[in-house]
UniProtKB/TrEMBL annotation, chain A:
Family to which the UniProt record says this protein belongs: Belongs to the binding-protein-dependent transport system permease family. HisMQ subfamily.
Keyword Membrane recorded: yes
SUPFAM superfamilies the record matches: MetI-like
GO biological process: amino acid transport
Localization: Cell inner membrane; Cell membrane
TM region(s), chain numbering: 21-39, 82-108, 129-150, 181-201, 213-234, 254-276, 334-352, 358-383
Name of the protein in question: Amino acid ABC transporter permease
Any GO molecular function: transmembrane transporter activity
From TrEMBL, chain C:
Organism: Pseudomonas matsuisoli
Descriptive protein name: Amino acid ABC transporter substrate-binding protein
SUPFAM superfamilies from the UniProt entry: Periplasmic binding protein-like II
UniProt keyword annotation of Transport present: yes
Family classification: Belongs to the bacterial solute-binding protein 3 family.
CDD domains assigned: PBP2_BztA (cd13692)
Length: 392, 365, 342
């Protein structure tokens, strides 16, 4: 190949590969230098002002209480344990939120495509209204406007003497293990194993002979019948601890605190609007020919939906659905606005303030969310690869 | 001879036009549908009349204090009395014309960008994006040209919300495009840096980013250097949003057929010219709806600055509801706020959907 | 690379907009003099201590300390710029040099002096954690609060003190923590919690914000020591001394009977050597502090002595009507005690 005229003089500069190398080296050096610069600044700042650094504070006793904790926690416990309290609270609200938002989102997404005009319009109004209002405002609305209408503990709304709703939360009876518990658990385990056996056997039989076996009914029977039998023979597995009004508050039972309730409602309602849109576009992405083909094979409508449309739609739905789940998890950090003790409010908020170690607490908090996000992205990539392979 | 006896005529088919036919097709096509319709109608009956009653019929519109409000209905007097604060925050009353003027310049200045007939739209648009922030800053902050200085701590209400949203998008867009290009680069080091940057910001909640910028950023900087609180929040918002923009733009870059790159390269164009003259104009056009959607998300996210104590629209509403003179006005306040956010976000999403449809037809073969 | 760009962009933006303050290049005093004002961190709204009036001007006991420092340094109490800070931001704002001093009803504790890089310059209000409850509950003392739900501001010493108190007395409680005190008050009103806990001074301030203040009482118990005072960054002794002595000048002036009304006259005519030294008529003690000679005169003239500031902001001249109590002069039943100027 002939060299272009005049290129020899500055060939090194004009060689794209050399330039790429040079550019990359400059980029890396710049980033490292910036990192080093910031690190140096921070070090100097911390030292000059005598600010403690390091993660030693995690072992110190926290000394303050928390309104909701899934694990045993008392004021004497360490900041380290408090971290897990916050983490679990975040995971709790995210998990519950994801379940509710998914159910609600699928219903509304399907309703959005309903042949019924009224239902269709209502679904679109829901979607447009709730996805265009900031989630934080929705949380405030539920917490400061709606839940404040609920009466105080002494005038609790009472549902048959077992469920109590007041401005301290929703009190529900808590199950406490009784003598029949072991037997019940064993019965459930047996039912579970038996179901798997039945399922496999039925599948094999179907493949071999084409005959269908009523798997669902059998499994249901197993799961209801066996535990019932166990309860009859060995006695009730649980008894219920009913909340009682004592002093200022109800004691005993489980309580859903208003902060959790407001956060949950707001996040689910908000995310459901997005999920509904995802579901709608997923179902619409399956071409109409598929439905027609299924019809011409004689499949009834229900089976068409279940066996033909949904499996294909899911491939389109699942990636954006996961990112909605991630968004919900990240949005759960808005808990800080209403005092629900999640990761951000508890750790990046209170602990930061009590210890004054901003860098460490924020770094820990961020890395938790980063870990959750990256893990889910990773799983998503694996899923996408599998789906892509399944295409041919 | 066989005689043909005609069968009697079938009855005419049901009406396919008219209100009744429409209702039968859309509301009562099957027993299940009929049931659903009735259920939905009942739900609407349950919700709408009390809502209308609360918001309009029993509501109070005139007056100056809480005592003027009739019980049982909304008290819009509260909104009326606090309207200035919701719009401008603590911006001095006699200087508020500056905010209005800034907004007016934005509307008048940006309008030509949306007219097809305008020559050199792109260049004008970019020029406007560069000049406008300076003008807006001078007008809002003052301190020069004889304008009284209004420190950013006194900005608030919808003004601050719009400032954060506008500055956020203006900063995040160029940064996001550069990041997207970096992510698609052939240089592994650049690619890794960009991917790390993007995934980092996308993986953390904005609230922690805001915490970081308000609490940690000052410790990163050398002694003696400190930023205005609003600017710190803006840096956080821009870094955060640029990662999302980058992903949107990347989608557009991926959608451009390889032939375009090769053709541009064959013309002897260098990397920046290929990108600047051939690829980006096509890619960005494709992702305008995506960018608008990101902007909607950004607009909603501005409400989070309440957590670091900036007085945006939501915080102004929130503060007003704790005023002892107006206790019990939470619902009115939040409903009003929701309405404003809704108008902006819904308007933008309708625009983005229209664009999407328009662009869609262009690419259908 | 991108970080460089973004940071550079941010830096240039800051430089262009003139926002990159040079808060404390070297000694704070020089920097303050150069920029022409004291940047003072205050609370984001607490009646009596620091709050914005309708016009946007800040007032309060804590604000007066900022003003006193400005009066001492510049001879002009208006040369202050305020940064309203949330409880979370206050320490880093000081540590990072965003503000020159923090006067935000902050409790003086060893860990804040030690690990957080601050120096407390004295106490401008002796406070203690108390309880505000609804009269309906019929509670007369803190010991009856077993099982109560308590609203607390997140990240404060109150949170720790309440927990200590309830643990020490074997009582149970449920804490509900909010970022802002307004939200706590709102929650108390709505019945989300039975008790609002905070420094007593704040309880009075919160109470007047409620719709029916008479419906609520402050319980007699004070369960902790909360000495509130201004703080400065560690590592600048001169500035530390200035803030410290600006506060002492206010307290000392009250003890010596110097008020904003009579200060100029006394500066000229006084026979009392203590007053003469404080007001710069004798010696040059102000200069030792790197301040003008008439520093204390300016403070008292423009801000008033401690007693005046107290009465105006939180005492009988205000809506809070807090009694002097511990915050009276040492020779008047309180524990305020300013070291002598000499």
């Amino acid at each position: 190949m002939a060299k272009p005229v005049g290129a020899s003089r500055s060939s090194l500069l004009n060689d794209p590969r050399t330039r790429a190398w040079a550019f990359q080296i400059i980029a890396i050096v710049a980033v490292v230098a910036l990192g080093w610069y910031l690190f140096q600044n921070t070090q100097t700042n911390l030292q000059n002002r005598g600010i403690t650094s390091g993660f030693g504070f995690l072992d110190n006793s926290a000394g303050f209480g928390v309104s909701q904790s899934l694990i045993d926690y008392s004021e004497a416990n360490s900041y380290g344990r408090l971290f897990f309290v916050g983490l679990l609270n975040t995971l709790l609200v995210s998990a519950l939120g994801i379940i509710i938002a998914t159910v609600l989102g699928f219903i509304i997404g399907v309703a959005r495509l309903s042949p019924n005009w009224l239902i269709r319009k209502m679904a679109s109004v829901y979607i447009e209204v709730f996805r265009n209002i900031p989630p934080l405002l929705q949380i405030f609305f539920w917490y400061f406007a709606v839940l404040r209408l609920v009466p105080n503990p002494r005038q609790s709304l009472d549902f048959m003497g077992t469920l109590f709703l007041n401005n301290r939360g929703l009190y529900v009876p808590a199950p406490v293990g009784a003598e029949g518990l072991t037997a019940m658990l064993v019965a459930l385990a047996i039912a579970f194993v038996a179901s798997i056996v039945v399922f496999r056997w039925a599948k094999a039989k179907r493949h071999a002979t084409g005959e269908r076996f009523p798997v669902l009914l059998t499994v249901l029977g197993l799961f209801i019948g066996l535990p019932l039998l166990a309860a009859l023979v060995f006695g009730a597995p649980l008894h219920w601890e009913v909340p009682q009004l004592q002093g200022f508050n109800f004691r005993g039972g489980w309580v859903v605190i208003p902060e959790l309730f407001a956060l949950l409602v707001a996040l689910s309602v908000y995310t459901a609007a997005f999920i509904a849109e995802t579901v709608r576009s997923g179902i619409q992405s399956v071409s109409h020919g598929q439905t027609e083909a299924a019809n011409s094979l004689g499949l009834p409508a229900g089976k068409t939906l279940r066996l033909v449309i949904i499996p294909q739609a899911m491939r389109v739905i699942i990636p954006p659905l996961t990112s909605q789940y991630l968004n919900l998890t990240k949005n759960s950090s808005l808990a800080a606005g209403i005092g629900y003790p999640d990761m951000v409010a508890l750790f990046a908020g209170t602990v930061l303030n009590q210890t004054g170690q901003a860098i460490e607490t924020i770094a820990i908090t961020m890395s938790v969310y980063l870990t959750i996000s990256l893990t889910i992205s990773l799983l998503m990539n694996v899923y996408n690869k599998r789906m892509a392979l399944a295409e041919r | 001879m066989t005689t043909h006896t005609f069968k009697p005529d079938l009855p005419p088919p049901g009406k396919t036009v008219g209100a009744w036919a429409w209702m039968r097709a859309n509301l009562f096509s099957s027993p299940v549908n009929t049931l659903l319709t009735l259920l939905a109608a009942y739900l609407i009956w349950l919700l709408i009349p009390p809502l209308l009653d609360w918001a309009f019929i029993s509501a109070t519109f005139s007056g100056t204090t809480r005592a003027d409000c009739a019980p049982g209905g909304a008290c819009w007097v509260f909104i009326k009395e606090r309207f200035g604060q919701f719009m401008y925050g603590f911006y001095p009353t006699e200087e508020r014309w500056r905010v209005n003027l800034t907004l007016l310049i934005a509307i008048v200045g940006a309008a030509p960008v949306f007219f097809k007939a305008m020559p050199r739209r792109a260049i004008y648009g970019i020029g406007f994006l560069i000049v406008y922030p300076v003008v807006a800053w001078i007008l809002l902050h003052g301190g020069v040209l004889g304008l009284e200085q209004v420190p950013t701590t006194r900005w608030g209400g919808l003004t601050l919300t719009l400032v954060i949203a506008a500055a956020g998008i203006a900063g995040a867009l160029p940064l996001g495009i550069v990041l997207a290009l970096g992510r698609r680069s052939h240089m592994p080091a650049v690619r890794v840096l960009c991917v790390t940057f993007i995934e980092f910001w996308r993986g953390v909640p904005l609230i922690t980013v805001l915490f970081m910028s308000s609490v940690m950023l000052p410790l990163f900087l050398p002694e003696g250097m400190s930023f205005d609180k609003l600017l710190r929040a803006l840096i956080g918002v821009i870094l955060f949003q640029s990662a999302y923009i980058a992903e949107v733009v990347r989608g557009g870059l991926q959608a451009i057929p390889k032939g375009q790159y090769e053709a541009a390269g064959a013309m002897g164009l260098g990397y920046w010219r290929v990108m600047g003259l051939v690829i980006l104009p096509q890619a960005l056009k494709l992702v305008i709806p995506g960018i608008v959607n990101t902007f909607i998300a950004l607009f909603k996210d501005t409400s989070l600055v309440i957590i670091i104590g900036l007085f945006d629209l939501l915080n102004s509403l929130h503060q007003a509801t704790v005023d002892p003179a107006w206790l019990g006005m939470s619902t009115e306040g939040y409903v009003f706020g929701a309405l404003i956010y809704f108008i902006f976000c819904f308007g933008m999403s309708q625009y983005s959907q229209r664009l999407e449809r328009k662009l869609d037809t262009g690419h259908r073969r | 690379m991108k970080m460089v760009k973004s940071t550079l962009a941010a830096l240039t933006a800051a430089a262009v907009f003139g926002l990159a303050g040079t808060a404390h290049a070297g000694p704070t005093l020089d920097a303050v003099k150069k920029k022409g004002f004291v940047q003072c961190g205050i609370s984001d709204g607490l009646p009596g201590f620091s709050y914005a009036e309708a016009g946007g001007a800040y007032k309060g006991l804590d604000v007066d300390v900022c003003r006193a420092v400005a009066a001492a340094v510049f001879g002009d109490a208006t040369k202050v710029r305020y940064s309203p800070l949330t409880a979370k931001e206050r320490f880093t704002a000081l540590q990072s040099g965003e503000i020159d001093m923090l006067s935000r009803n902050t409790t003086w504790t060893s860990s804040r002096d030690g690990g957080m890089g601050m120096n407390f310059a004295g106490v401008n209000y002796y406070d203690g954690v108390g309880f505000l409850v609804n009269k309906e509950l019929g509670v007369s003392g803190a010991k009856e609060l077993d099982g109560a739900t308590i609203c607390i501001q997140a990240g404060t010493t109150t949170e720790l003190n309440v927990s200590d108190y309830f643990r020490a007395n074997g009582l149970k409680y449920t804490p509900i923590t909010y970022d802002r005190s307004d939200e706590s008050a709102k929650s108390l009103e709505a019945g989300r919690c039975d008790v609002l806990t905070s420094d007593q001074s704040q309880l009075y301030a919160q109470r007047i914000k409620l719709a029916q203040p008479d419906q609520y009482v402050v319980l007699p118990e004070v369960i902790s020591k909360e000495p509130l005072g201004p703080a400065v960054r560690r590592g600048d002794e001169d500035w530390f001394a200035i803030v410290k002595w600006s506060l002492f000048a206010m307290i000392g002036a009250e003890e010596l009977g110097v008020t904003s009304a009579n200060v100029e006259q006394m500066a000229k005519e006084t026979k009392n050597p203590d007053v003469a030294r404080l007001l710069g008529a004798e010696g040059s003690f102000g200069n030792d502090l790197k301040l003008p000679k008439d520093w204390a005169v300016q403070i008292v003239k423009q801000v008033g002595n401690y007693g005046e500031s107290f009465e105006r902001n939180v005492g009988q001249g205000s809506e809070l009507k807090i009694k002097r109590g511990l915050n009276a002069q040492w020779n008047n039943g309180g524990i305020l005690y300013a070291p002598p100027v000499r």
